[in-house]
Amino acid sequence: MKYVANSQNNASAVQALVRAALGTELPLRIRCWDGTTAGPPDAPVRLALHRRRALRRLLWAPNELGLARCFVAGDLDVESDFFDSLSQLERVIGSQSGPLEVDRAVKWDMIKSGLRLGAFGLPPKPPAEEIRLGGRLHSKRRDAEAISHHYDVGNDFYALVLGPTMTYSCAVWGEGVESLDDAQIAKVDLVARKLGLDEGKRVLDVGCGWGTFVIHAAKQYGAHAVGVTLSQAQADFARKRVAEEGLSDLVEIRVQDYRDVRDGPFDAISSIGMAEHVGLSMLPTYAKVLYDLLKPEGRLLNHAISRKAGVRGRTGERTSFINRYVFPDGELEPLGVMVDAIEDAGFEVRDVEALREHYALTLRAWVANLETRWADAVRLTSEGRARVWRLYMAASALTFERGSIGVNQVLAVRPSDSGTSGFPRTRTALLS
């Protein structure tokens, strides 16, 4: 026998189901596919369920992955303030892998609500934007697939989100800096000054993205720059920018794994938002390769997101939205782990700067760009892909604001055989 709820009770039954799945009495307002509603109109979280299949997604994965699948597929929308609602939900969402790991009493409540709603059945197919990679973790082939999944979404889409600088990492919002573009230029200039770039110096940018840093290094400092990326779409865009700037004699863009760079030594190496893709097991290799590519007294600037020590990195968990939809195989490590890997390779760490609050501001600016031009974003990719980016960037902004994760610039040097570093005696002189 199939049990289906009376339409007058659908929203109330769904409300009970969602609360059971979340394991909380968080005030919710639910609006169902048939127009029925339940919960206070001024509830801090107001959800609209457009399709009954959303319930099957939640029954099979009552966690962040289930909710993310609902949102990406368009089965669920947030009708209250997006940032505030995510903040409320993140406080109560666990990382269970499915209903078999839910408390027995909670499971029974879910079953009763599901019966009333006729929600039982096989799990719906995940949205097309979800990915699970095969092959050996952090092999060159798998790393290339992971990078392609995230970065080959379309250059026009990224231009819409990132703005004219096409810079996809934490900006630096100094005193008086109000625009995203100015903050991003301030960031790449900060990196160039920390690396001590000037005319004739040779710099390698690992994970060069769309070429903003290498163009700035050549145009403003006269450096010879090599940028490497695993994304063909990024490389094509960057090469076009380089040619338009008249910098082809100073800048080279390659589609190349950093492990395959053979034409060192370089005077400096920048790695801006790339180390998160390396993985803990490969950090020693990563640091040693970069060390070997530098001249004595050559500098490394490693700009990377970090997690708190003692807190598990969630990017690799099987119920992680980030791992399935955004950064497959991405791994965040504590700052100390990154510093240890760099020092173990032979570097001397000279300076560390935390930029956590700056990344929260950057992410909010990207979300604003996306929401302002939502119809264009959907046209350029798909509604599902645009939803992925909105969810991940908003949730990430909240995570940085809470201090659950941070972002740091670690400046290190390959000392000469005699131990000299070539660094000025003061930080003021370093940044002048």
From TrEMBL:
Molecular-function GO term, any one: methyltransferase activity
Pfam families: CMAS
Entry keyword set: Lipid metabolism, Methyltransferase, S-adenosyl-L-methionine, Transferase
InterPro entries: CFA/CMAS, CMAS, SAM-dependent_MTases_sf
Keyword Kinase among record annotations: no
Natural source organism: Amycolatopsis alkalitolerans
Protein name: Class I SAM-dependent methyltransferase
Methyltransferase found in the keyword field: yes
Leader peptide range in chain numbering: none
Family: Belongs to the CFA/CMAS family.
GO biological process, one term: methylation
